[in-house]
Amino acid sequence: MKSKTIKAQLYEHVARIGKAISSPKRLELIELLAQGEKTVDTLSAQAGIDMRLASAHLRCLREARLVETRRAGKFIHYRLSGPDVAQLWIDVREVAAEHLVELRVALDQMAAAPETLSGESRESLLARARSGDIVVIDVRPAAEYAAGHLPCARSMPLAELEQRLADLPAGKDIVAYCRGPFCLMSDEAVRLLRQRGYSAHKIPDGVTEWRAGGLPIEH
Question: What is 47-61 written as a DSSP string?
Answer without folding.
Answer: HTS-HHHHHHHHHHH
